[in-house]
Amino acid sequence: MNYRKDLRAILAHIWPFNCFISRLDCLYSEVTQLQERLDCMNEELNARLLQLQKSNFENRSLNTYNDLMRQELTESYTNNYLLTEKNATLQDEIRALSSEKKEIQRVNVLLKKQLDVHNNFHKIGSSSAFWEEIYANGGNSGTGSYNRLAKFKAEVVNTFLKEQGVLTTIEFGCGDGSQLSLINYPNYVGVDVSSNIIEKNKIKFINDRKKTFYCTFTERDKYINQKYDLSISMDVIFHLLEEDVFSNYMNDLFSVSKRYVIIYSSNHEEYTKWPEYRHRKFMRYIQENIKGWILKQFIPNKYPYVIGREEVTSASDFYIFERIL
Questions:
Q1: What's the CA gap between 198 and 216, in Å, rounded?
Q2: 228-237: per-residue pLDDT in tens?
Q3: What pLDDT score was predicted for residue 21?
Q4: 3-state helix, strand, coil in the chain (%, to 5)
Q5: Which residues form a coiled coil (predicted)?
Q6: How do residues 283-310 score in pLDDT, each as one tens digit?
Q7: Residues ≥6 apart with Cβ < 8 Å to 64
Q8: Mean per-residue pLDDT for 146-167?
Q9: Which of these, 227, 226, 130, lies nearest to 173 by C-alpha position?
Q10: Which residues lie closer than 8 Å to 149 by C-beta, 6 or more apart?
Q11: Domain ranges of the chain
Q12: CATH no. of 127-323
């Protein structure tokens, strides 16, 4: 080893070995530096490798976590879809139940009306008995037969009698004759269920030979087989509480007329606080049961019904029918 050092020291002073040795020293120095840099780089690479391995492990963990999350998300989507479907089904069921509820409420209202009508009917016994008692106690035909309502009805009927050349008329439910006094019938037959009011009318119009009066129950045969130009009903139909009384009345009203029928009445179903009232859709009955007639004219009331003003307003309108068969 000392020999090499001595030889190197000798050669270091001899040209060109000195240059070579100097160059060699430089190369050794560079190699050493390169080795040191290489060692540093290896250390950095190893550190990065460890970091990458750690990151890779973490990434695998994240992938596993992401897979679990995707699975949970898929399950959530599936559950959400199922819940949406179930919610839609429940909404349909709720709508169906709501419709059923409305229908039940509607039926309950109808049943209540029918019960009210039934109870009202039993309060007064029968429609004919009610009016017999009213007239026997000095009562009248009601507000519709007086004042401006009576004048309106008379104007319509008098105009019709004149325009259509009506010679004979029968009125079903003539009442106390107050309305009759305002109408110019050429020949008139008045019919009513109250024998009491019929007798009073016979006395009231005793000097008028163009007017005749019959009781429905005792003198029906005297008018039912006759034919008249006009059959008229004013403010009567909504007082017919019983079904058979109503149907018999409607059939008689149309059967005895050879030309026209006039009905002045309400045409709707409604419960009222007055037991003697039962509003009916009489037009439906006519359409379903009475053939050979057409509605010739409809005249609305000049004083339509206003709650609280029952004495001067009315729910009735004029319906004028003409025979076609």
A1: 10
A2: 999 999 999 9
A3: 67
A4: 60, 15, 25
A5: 24-55, 87-114
A6: 999 999 999 999 999 999 999 999 889 8
A7: none
A8: 96
A9: 130
A10: 143, 303, 312, 313, 314
A11: 1-95, 127-323
A12: 3.40.50.150
